[in-house]
Amino acid sequence: MTALAGGVGGSKLLTGLRHVMHPETGAVVVNTADDEKFYGLHVSPDIDTIIYQMAGIGDEAKGWGIKDDTFNALEMLSRLGLETWFKIGDRDFATHLYRTMRLNEGASLTQVTAELAEKLGVSWRILPMSDDPVKTIVETEIGPLPFQTYFVKYRYSLKVHDIRFQGIEKAKPGKEVITALSSAEYLIIPPSNPVVSIGPILTLPGVRDLLRNSNATILAVSPIIRGHALRGPAAELMKSMGYEPSPVGVADMYHDFLDILVFDTADEEMAKDVKALGVKPLTTRTIMESFEDRVRLAAFCLKAIGYRL
Ligand code: GDP
Ligand code: CA
């Protein structure tokens, strides 16, 4: 089993999958184009969200960060006159210190991520999409902004003209990413942002071809319900990239490799348009509020791709 994921939406379905499947059997390829330096530390928001959630120490209400974390270090940084719009808890800081220290010692992001996952007790392989730097730049009405500045500082309220992934032409997918994609029997794309979370992974040289030529059954879950994302800018960003913010738009973005799209019963009437794109439509409740919701949707997806539970 291989999954492709961003942070919050991705980790919700992944924790369901982990619960239903045998834990050894999964690998997750994670977006790193949101990575950013804060106070000289290398922060990988999507990787951290997935590791924390899968380790069972994540803050489930917020979706990101560590449960019951405190914010003393950040408060002190604020007193020292630094900007603190990107919230980093005290325990969370330890992760970024560890990552930065190991990267400075010459370890790759793939290696450091494996160490963090192992130390925190995550049995799935968490694979950064690349060890090379890729950076999402959002072209907004006030000029180009790094993704976290657009997303967190400006709370995605600015008009977006374009999105680019700086450095992507020269970036290589990680070796283990290539293996996880080419050897996968089952491939799941949880409800992550198709533009800025899954987009960078798919734009890495060679990845789309691997998916097109894959023997795996590939299933995605739509993050868009009734024209809106459950949270975050997925709908707005899809529109600014010329896609309809709907399951049909998601199917359109993935149609060249996607076998099955799972989307909410509330959008049932879109089944025929999804089918017309060559993607099999399946509907169910896709809102994951409780842990039971995650487990139920995970089991639904596994059954749809013929995974034997
Ligand atoms: P980020 O990197 O933290 O923004 O997280 P992702 O890209 O993985 O996920 C963001 C997407 O998850 C948003 O577009 C949300 O609409 C979607 N999402 C969040 N919770 C749910 C849910 O319970 N069900 C579905 N279908 N989508 C969800
Ligand atoms: Ca993200």
- What would you call the shape? globular
CATH classification class of the domain at 33-128: Mainly Alpha
| Classification by helices and strands | alpha/beta
Strand order in the largest sheet = 5-2-1-9-10-13-14
Give an overview of the whole structure.
This protein is an alpha/beta fold and 309 residues long. The protein has a domain at 33-128: Helicase, Ruva Protein, domain 3. 39% of the residues lie in helices and 19% in strands. The protein is built from 13 helices and 14 strands. It has helices spanning 8-20, 45-55, 72-79, 90-104, 109-119, 147-153, 175-182, 198-203, 207-212, 234-240, 247-254, 271-276, 291-304, and strands spanning 2-5, 27-30, 36-38, 41-43, 125-128, 135-140, 143-146, 160-166, 186-189, 217-221, 224-225, 228-229, 260-264, 280-284. The strands form four sheets. Strands 5-2-1-9-10-13-14 form a seven-stranded parallel sheet, with helices on both faces. It has a three-stranded antiparallel sheet with strand order 7-6-8. It has a two-stranded antiparallel sheet with strand order 3-4. Strand 11 (224-225) and strand 12 form a beta hairpin. It is globular. The mean pLDDT is 97. The site of guanosine-5'-diphosphate (GDP) has 24 residues, from helix 1 and helix 2.
